[in-house]
Amino acid sequence: MPTSSPSRHIRRPVDLRLYAILDPERARGRPLPELALAAVDGGVTLLQYRDKYGDTRRMVDNARAIRAAIAGRGVPLLINDRLDVALAAEADGVHVGQDDMTPEDARRLLGPEAIIGLTLNNEQEASNAAGEPIDYGCIGGVFATSSKVDAKPPIGLEGLAAVIDTARKDVPDLPVSAISGIDETNAASVIASGSEGIAVISAIFLADDVTDASRRLRNIVDASLAAYGAKR
Ligand SMILES: Cc1ncc(COP(=O)(O)OP(=O)(O)O)c(N)n1
Ligand SMILES: Cc1nc(C(=O)O)sc1CCOP(=O)(O)O
Ligand SMILES: [Mg+2]
Q: What is this structure's pTM?
């Protein structure tokens, strides 16, 4: 078994500018590896495979196929919730929420090189992130979404700014992004609130042209980061 000391974790570098989450429920029946590559071609910097309904074998097969499709492109692949799938498919890490396996247990199982992300829903959870062996936090949900059945009430831009401020104060070296309902109309406001990037499902993977949608979002993020800067 891999062993790791979670309390002494040195954060892995992670580029949060455009984080695409690939979910078969939001793919319009199109092949996941092709969608993954199309998104990477458009400038996605981090990719997650999220599958709330897939059986384990399908998930491992899909994760392997996605990994093969984007191999050599420098874009890490994370698996939502499922450490076993991440290990079997040799993905780069996992994303866990507050009700999933703890970051400490995930770190112990995956080792120091894995990228581990954690959902932060409020200021208390941002504060509690201090000392967690994670590499980034993702704050949600900012706006309403149809992509998550058990989504919490949206916190809006003011809520986002408050959670980011708490993270900056209590966990200054933690990179943070934001999720839920983010698209071309509001991405700039998310960055202006202090986020280092955006995490997106439908604005990328429900688009007719996934590469074009990714490119437009990436341009908005880059321009907004240049204008507002990351506060960290
Ligand atoms: C980047 C990113 N942020 C948040 C989530 C949500 O995680 P969680 O709260 O565990 O909910 P599920 O996605 O597991 O339904 C995420 N997956 N990715
Ligand atoms: C996976 C996920 N987590 C959320 C949270 O609030 O924690 S919202 C969400 C889905 C985001 O999809 P879209 O970009 O289509 O709104
Ligand atoms: Mg989860």
A: 0.97
